[in-house]
Amino acid sequence: MAKTIADGFYNDPRLTEAKKLIQDALKEHSSKITGVKPATPELKESYDELLKRMANFRGGALFYNYLGSGIGNGPFVELADGSVKYDFITGIGVHYMGHSHPGVIEAQINGAIGNTVMNGHLQQNTDSAKLVELFSTQACKYGAEVKNVFLTTSGAMANENGFKMIFQKRYPAARFFSFEKCFSGRTLGMAWVTDKAAYRQGLPKTIDVDYIPFYDAKDHKGSIEKAVYAMKKMITRFPGQHAGFIMELIQGENGSWVGNTEYFEALINVCKENNISVLIDEVQTFGRTSELFAFQYFKLDKHVDIVSVGKNSQVCATLFKDDHKPKPGLMSQTFTGSSSQIAASYFVINELVNGGYLGENGKNNKLHAHFKANLEKLAAKYPQIVEGPYGVGAMVGMTMWKGDEPKSKAFTMKLFENGVLSFLAGGHPTARVRFLMPVMATNEKHIDEVCAIIDKTIAELA
Questions:
Q1: CA–CA gap between residue 77 and residue 35 (Å, rounded)
Q2: What b-and-e string marks burial along 21-36, b requiring 16 or more CB atoms within 10 Å of the CB?
Q3: Under 8 Å CB-to-CB from 411, ≥6 apart: which residues?
Q4: 125 backbone dihedrals φ, ψ, rounded to 5°
Q5: CA 327 → CA 33, 93, 148, 323, distances in Å?
Q6: How far apart are alpha carbons 448 and 35 in whole angstroms?
Q7: How far apart (Å, rounded) are the C-alpha atoms in residues 193 and 159?
Q8: What is the pLDDT of residue 122?
Q9: Tens digits of per-residue pLDDT, 364-414?
Q10: Residue 365 and residue 289: Cα distance in Å, rounded?
Q11: Closest residue by Cα to residue 35 from 458, 452, 457
């Protein structure tokens, strides 16, 4: 069989040996990171100075005093002050595989030694072809028709691209539906979709959005009726003007609020009756439930027109049906991601599909059940402070001090100080503390240790 010069290069025994040496060195050094530890006193002054310089040059302080050293070990990450923390927010859901994962490192090396730093729509290497096929086949395996894949560089851009396709198909309709308290990104367009006024203060209006109340598990039938009524009311008010509905099936940024199949189907039926396209926003949910896609978890395969994915996938993407294919000129990007990113993306998704993470008895569900049981014990121990937990799979949240935002933020800061990274979600009137576990690198013992630190932190603040 004929081979390319690249085949010889990638299989050169010198590269094989070099990669082995890197992996050996990684294992030797990362294995020294075995648990939470405080900062090294001798590094404090230089670390504080580095944080000040960072704040000065970026125009503001970091949310946490976090600058990584460049190495970790699974759920543990070392900071540049020598401290080690449990990373249970994973860059707001990006580092599903934890830190210094050998498989991810190998994939990145394979990408890094390629001929270009970036792949783009004019020039892409074979790894891009493999990746889009993997996305497509996995998205359509239960009957969905979103077989076309457009790679991009961020979740917000994946949503922007979906909006462009829908607006073009539904022209001249120019309004959108979304859910109350949704988060779709911070681009100029998505800032007007995200239901948070602070994110668009001072920005010119770009998109007209009508917000529908999200599912309330405490009022199943009532929440469905309210949402359908709100939709029909807006359609009556603006007949023929709605192009699409962007749906977060699990609201991550709002605090891990979980939707319901019957609820979504009721709204989608209204969409279909009125020629309104359905865009499923999976930037945060991708890979975190018992299915690769949350729309598969909710059994909405036959209903989706466009799907946006990101975070866990490393490279973001917009998947779409044939009848939403854009006309020439609408979609293009100079680059869709680095060669290392694309190689890592294929590794992560392939591992998710074949590594025992999905399914009713998969690792996502098992770790969720264990984390939930631990947090339920804390809720019983501190009934006036902790409520929940909430969420599904690798998305977990809890309400603290009845959702008091300043107290909840103070908790996340103290928890960080004690060795665990979390993040604040939601807002007035109910804030939540949330966790996005690095499932690929986490076991039940890790969760027990994290929950012990949570317990210690609550006791200190209470």
A1: 9
A2: eeeeebeeebeebeeb
A3: 400, 401, 433, 457, 458, 461
A4: -90, 180
A5: 52, 33, 14, 11
A6: 13
A7: 10
A8: 92
A9: 999 999 999 999 999 999 999 999 999 999 999 999 999 999 999 999 999
A10: 7
A11: 452
Say if pTM beats, i.e. exceeds, 0.90.
yes
Strand pairing report for 208-212 and 175-179: parallel
CB burial class (10 A; 0-12, 13-18, 19+) of residue 250?
buried
Q: Pull the structure tokens for residue 76.
A: 């543990």
The reported pLDDT for the residue numbered 2 is: 83
Question: Residue 139 is encoded by which pair of tokens?
Answer: 């998205």
Encode pLDDT of 170-222 as tens digits. Answer: 999 999 999 999 999 999 999 999 999 999 999 999 999 999 999 999 999 99
Phi, psi of 115 (to 5 degrees): -80, -15
Amino acid at 341: Q
Read off the pLDDT of each residue in 431-452 and give the average, rounded to a whole number: 97
Q: Work out whether strand 68-73 and strand 430-436 pair parallel, antiparallel, or are unpaired.
A: unpaired
> What DSSP designation does 63 have?
S
Tokens of 384: 């006036």
